[in-house]
Amino acid sequence: MTSRESGRIKEADKKRVLDEASRKRRARKALEALEQDNFHDDPHADLVMSKKIPKFQDNLDTSKNKKGKKPKNAEYFKAKYRKTFSQLLEEDKTLRPDPPNYGSAQAPPSRFPERHFCAVCGFPSNYTCTSCGTRYCCVRCLGTHQDTRCLKWTA
């Protein structure tokens, strides 16, 4: 008589399992990728518009001043002089070299235990992927994780 086994247990030996150092490296690379996606300068900011192109909006605009130019609002200046996070940090260092500033801000460790959230949906999670260590909250999120995320972009 043969004993019945779970299919999940049979496949566990075939799965690739990352050690703790690989998991940390993978998490760091994912954060770096997110940081790269965060902010980019507008690639079209330096383009010069051709004067040969007809300007249809000029005829319809009634909010022009006497010289024929449209007044510039705050949104124009926000877009033109937008700064990256690193530029804002440098500016903060020069304006306020003495604490308190962003670089010197500190908080004591939390009295409460660390909270874990699902990497798929963001709800609180109780489970961890055996292969890569990513957190998930339910079987549905585990399926999504295994189909789309698990060990897809490891280095």
UniProtKB/TrEMBL annotation:
Annotated region described as Disordered, given as residue ranges: 1-23, 89-109
Source organism superkingdom: Eukaryota
Keywords: Metal-binding, Zinc, Zinc-finger
Matches recorded under InterPro entries: Vps71/ZNHIT1, Znf_HIT
GO cellular component: nucleus
Protein name: Uncharacterized protein
Transmembrane segments: none
Any one GO biological process: chromatin remodeling
CDD domains in alphabetical order: zf-HIT_ZNHIT1_like
Biased composition range(s): Basic and acidic residues: 1-22
An example molecular function term from Gene Ontology annotations: zinc ion binding
Pfam families: zf-HIT (PF04438)
